[in-house]
Design brief:
The chain contains six helices and seven strands; from the N terminus they run H-H-H-E-E-E-H-E-H-E-E-H-E. It is α+β, with helices and mostly antiparallel strands. The strands form two sheets. Strands 4-6-5-7 form a four-stranded antiparallel beta sheet. The protein is globular, with a radius of gyration of 16 Å.
Amino acid sequence: MALFLLLKDEDVNHFLPWYPVKTIEETTRFYQERFENQEYAYAVCLKEDNFPIGYVKAESDESHDFGYALRKEYWNRGIITEASAAIVAQLKKDGLPYITATHDRNNPKSGRVMQHIGMRYCYSYEELWQPKNFLVTFRMYQLNLNGEEHDVYQKYWQMSETHFVETAR
């Protein structure tokens, strides 16, 4: 039920790469496809009642793509930043070399979360975003956990014909 409350909200899912769910069955399928076998996927819970209100995750593939979502009634309280910092500490302890994260240029608050946990902006690129089928300019951030401060994950840059470095964010 907690995941359903998050995934059904249009505002929460506006900048995420899927449409809001409409049923518990869709939520179950979503969980099975995106979270069930993930090594680094955690529920974000309130300390006072341990009720899940969001998630943080990092992919195990070469991108080590980092992501998060939080129910909108808990936005702007530092909750997702705190949860993100905790997972980053675990990822570093486990030896992941880096994490990447992207956000739509029209969603700068997501970028601020990335900055608050130490991620740095690397570049921007355009992508025809699926399944929503519209052009998005993404900002790619990276946090190197292995001390290799100048290494930058290049896959998104290479896959996009339109890529650039913004000077003012």
